[in-house]
Write a structure and sequence with these properties.
It is a single chain. The chain is 44% helix and 16% strand. The protein is an alpha/beta fold. The protein has a five-stranded parallel sheet with strand order 4-3-5-6-7, sandwiched between helices. A five-stranded parallel sheet has the order 9-8-10-11-12, sandwiched between helices. Strand 3, helix 4 and strand 4 form a beta-alpha-beta unit. The longest helix has 22 residues. The protein is globular, with a radius of gyration of 20 Å. Bound molecules: 5-amino-5-deoxy-1-O-phosphono-D-mannitol. The site of 5-amino-5-deoxy-1-O-phosphono-D-mannitol (M6R) has 16 residues, from helix 4 and helix 11. 5-amino-5-deoxy-1-O-phosphono-D-mannitol binds next to helix 4 and helix 11.
Length: 366
Amino acid sequence: EKSGFEHFMLKEIFEQPEAIKNSVRGRLIPESGLAVLGGLESVEQRLRQVKRIHIVACGTAFHAGLVGEYMLEEYAGIPVEVCIGSEFRYRKAVLDPKDDAVLVISQSGETADSLAAVREAKEKGVLTLGIVNVVGSTIAQETDAGVYTHAGPEIGVASTKVFVSQLAVLALFIIFLGRQRQMSVVVGKRIAEALLAIPKQVQSILEQDSVTKLIAQKYFKSKDVFFLGRKYNFPIALEGALKLKEISYIHAEGYASGELKHGPLAVIDELVPSVVVCPQDSVYEKNISNIEEIRARHGKIVAIATHGDEEIKQVADDVIYIPKTLEMLTPILSAIPLQLLSYHVALALGHDIDKPRNIAKTATVE
Ligand code: M6R
């Protein structure tokens, strides 16, 4: 049921506050700064020994994995490698059964390339973990342990609510692993409290949908669009580009802002807009100088910025504001306007949003 929404994608975008609540419900003890993840209990001791994590996933789930890499390294001090499923299975990755764990992230739990990674890791005796949405799916069954996202069924081919749920579960996972290691109660509490505030913040972004719609109407005829971001929001730039190309068929590229000068800047002119994800975080100033580089080439800028940032208006043509949160959680908020932007662009172009051409919801074959 679309419950009055024009498309499943839009319905699922608007379900995100609820999806995140469901992902987090009953899994946090904020006053102790702890995460309680029943699905990991059986491997709790083994997880204490883990020295390296390989995150394997495809598409949008891969982008969630990239955010997880930044979170895990910063807060749990665990080295992480993130790999696309189709590469991992043929890469001959060096896996150590004593020190390593493989974490597979998947909405469907049936993606062939991600499942192959689970089987490859198991064959090598490595601990396998899953962050999966579909209960009882093959990946959920075949991994040693895991955490369900509990985002509810996702019908639209473009993944939206499950992506933010994956990020919320990764944050729980980081608290879980971090507190097993050097993370203090204070830091655990800070993340827990910020995570509990996220659903309301997402709701406030959804309420500004009309702003995003107007911006989409301004740019929907573009032939090429860049998405840029740094650190935690680099994966969100990749995700924004994937979302746009998947449903609008516009050529879009996601880049780390710092890579611009290494080639892509050559493409920028007045016809190629850039969506820059630049909340007021530890790399804000760096992003601003990248925006200046684009402006010098007459490129248009749509900025995703933090509420109260007036300075950004001087360098961006259009601004979409998101609330302030912990830097590691900004991707959950910054992803939302990019989903809405893609949706409204695809709508303006008259595409079949829930069933984009050439793509299936679940890639069960290679
Ligand atoms: O079911 P999975 O999460 O394993 O699927 C992975 C990708 O196929 C999926 O995220 C795909 O990229 C989405 N259609 C993107 O919106």
